[in-house]
Amino acid sequence: MRIVLLTGISGAGKSVALNVLEDTGYYCVDNLPPALLPDLVNRLALDGTSALAVAVDARSASSLASLPGEYRKLKEDGHEVKVIFLTANTHSLVARFSETRRSHPLSHEVHPGQNPAGRRTLIESIAEERERLSAIQQLGHVIDTSEMSANKLRAWIKDLVHSENAPLTLLFESFAFKVGVPLDADFMFDVRAIPNPYYDLALRPLNGRDAPVIAFLDAQESAEEMFQDIKNFVTKWLPHFKRDNRSYLTVAVGCTGGQHRSVYMAERLARHFAPVETVVLRHREQT
């Protein structure tokens, strides 16, 4: 059975992701205590279900610690198991809870000593949830939704589902340093040392996928050197991650605005590795 364990921080987009998985044919279960996972898998296997997505969150605190063990057991039993962990920075999470006027799930837990009312504040609840889920975050692929629209998250989840049969998916992601570094990067490269097309008024409205920008950057010796350095680094270390049974490796490439140099470099790296690896390409700042 193909199994996706969907987890992460409340407010980071688990409901959006679970709906995408349901639309792509997964049998979806929300907020399942991890201790019940083996029984659910066995029951659905008998019914002929081939794809299952389970959302797990910090509300299942009593059995959350068992999830890494259940994950390994499912893999040992021959199931194709992927973990997707959604996160976001605290500023974005606070803004989302304020916009929706929802309370954080852990804020309802009575916890004397946190504040006079005996309940956690929103900031305290987010911090507590990060702590509870920290061990699970190491199991799978992390997606940082801080600066991401719901539509972009849907597209990224679909990309991961389509690449799920690969032993390792190599993700190249462009981003803007001025917006903030991505929380989901395994490796991060700074290409701001390359001449910036932004200062050419004819190139400013374009991006790193447009032919004039590509021609400009192809002509820069530093761009070629940077590409070779990143390519060689990834080529050298990728086999080690495969031997470690990693499912995903995210390589983030950043420039100032996330429009020209980082997009160009991520596109070029993706084209280089696509013939021999399963590659997913993301541009965080592109609509």
UniProtKB/TrEMBL annotation:
Source organism, top-level taxon: Bacteria
Keyword DNA damage among UniProt keywords: no
Sequence ranges assigned to domain RapZ-like N-terminal in this UniProt record: 1-161
UniProt GO MF annotations: ATP binding; GTP binding
Keywords noted in UniProt: ATP-binding, GTP-binding, Nucleotide-binding
Binding annotation for ATP: 8-15
Binding locations of GTP: 57-60
Name of the protein: RNase adapter RapZ
Species assigned in the record: Massilia eburnea
